[in-house]
Amino acid sequence: MTSLPAIARRVEDVTATASIAARTLLSLDTNPVPGDWTHITKIDPEDEKQLPLLYPLYLQHTSAVEVGGSRDVTDQNTEETLDLVADRPVPAFQEPSGPTQVTDETRSKAEFLAIPEVLNGDVDALIGQLGAGIEHIQDDLAPEMIAEKLPISPGGAIEDRLSQFASAWMLREAVFEAYIIMNLDSAAARESNVTEDDLLDPGTAKQRALAAEQHLESELVYLEYSGTFGGEEAEDILEAVSDGLTWSRLWYGGGLDNRENAQRVLDAGADAVVVGNVFHEIADEEVDVCEQVVADLDPDASRDDVDAWIDSNVDLDAASATKYLSTIVDVSNPEGRAREYLETTILTWLAVQSVLEELDTDEPSSATEIRTAFREADLPGTTAVDAVLDAEGYLLDVLVDLAGPRYDVETDGLPVKHVSLEL
Ligand SMILES: CC(C)=CCC/C(C)=C/CC/C(C)=C/CC/C(C)=C/COP(=O)(O)OP(=O)(O)O
Ligand SMILES: O=P(O)(O)OC[C@@H](O)CO
């Protein structure tokens, strides 16, 4: 009689054969990472990296948001960032740089978990951190999940098996990101101990990418120049790697801040570009612009006044908003869009100052009063953000949370400390 383990083995064989045939013989695209994603915005949860006030306007043009970073990232700031950006207005996924950054909260908010495995770093960056991560899932996350789902604790061996099952399931659902890190002067290289000797030529990069696709089953191969543009060297690697890959997506990230370079890496074979720093720089610039505009213009300035002010005070061509939008090749007029979003931000910020003046006199005692005052002011940003999110009043929520502490009023607690402007 056929034993149960033999039947299980046969089922595994059939499933594996079907999966390999689907990917190779039939060329079916079974990769869970959408192939039509061409632009990823990488948002770092660390406190120093901020979001522009009207961030949904900018994010409407990107394909997805990746939440992660390599310094000062915690479970808490990751949860907060996901709270702000997940599905506003595009899906967001989490890329942890350490095991404890993954919690039940982050898992439920993120579209999926993307786990880095570095193909040219030390053992810890390829497999060590992953082992620690699996232990964290099995010992901490899975038991929490089981306790939440089951009315009584099964205890002992059954609970151990359920934990193993849950952790294996979470890993199956995760996406693996095989990194090739090529900028030695980056936090990513330092964290993964990538040294001069580990830098790869195109041929070796292709071989490692083949191993990532066919052995590690990495859904993503990620050429990382974090902070600097890789130029011709990156193009050569992308050409070689894309020539080898059939199923994994190929992403390029590092130093992108203009259309030409974004197009170059796409033409060299990248399926998507990842853009980080320049997005956060929009928020930094916005703080200076808004401070100056409040000093220069009346709160009831018209759109024409603001337009003229931008012409005299902002070099739009060099603005981070233009640079960010220009990395999205589908955005046809990045500078025009940047002007539109900056104008809306300024007009909103000026009107917010008037509301504050009113509120300072009225001394509101509840979040509802603050919200009513902002709603009655008919802020241009509210309408613009509502249109993008297809929902009502999100910017009002943000503003109430920004203004709450000024009046010692308790609010819903959106983590607005990640937003650039303060009230
Ligand atoms: C399974 C679970 C629960 C967790 C996974 C834990 C793992 C495997 C973490 C990977 C740690 C690792 C190898 C990190 C280094 C690679 C990395 C994340 C680079 C990208 O970091 P950026 O923040 O983009 O780089 P910069 O800071 O240089 O821009
Ligand atoms: O911050 P930049 O240089 O855009 O790089 C993006 C990303 O590759 C970092 O992991």
Automatic annotation (TrEMBL):
Keywords: Lipid biosynthesis, Lipid metabolism, Magnesium, Metal-binding, Phospholipid biosynthesis, Phospholipid metabolism, Transferase. InterPro entries: GGGP/HepGP_synthase_I, GGGP/HepGP_synthase_sf, GGGP_HepGP_synthase. Pfam families: PcrB (PF01884). Its EC number is 2.5.1.41. Coiled coil: none annotated. It comes from Halapricum salinum. It catalyses: sn-glycerol 1-phosphate + (2E,6E,10E)-geranylgeranyl diphosphate = sn-3-O-(geranylgeranyl)glycerol 1-phosphate + diphosphate. Gene3D superfamilies: FMN-linked oxidoreductases. GO terms for molecular function: heptaprenylglyceryl phosphate synthase activity; metal ion binding; phosphoglycerol geranylgeranyltransferase activity. GO terms for biological process: glycerophospholipid biosynthetic process. It comes from the Archaea. The lineage of its organism: Archaea, Methanobacteriati, Methanobacteriota, Stenosarchaea group, Halobacteria. This is phosphoglycerol geranylgeranyltransferase.
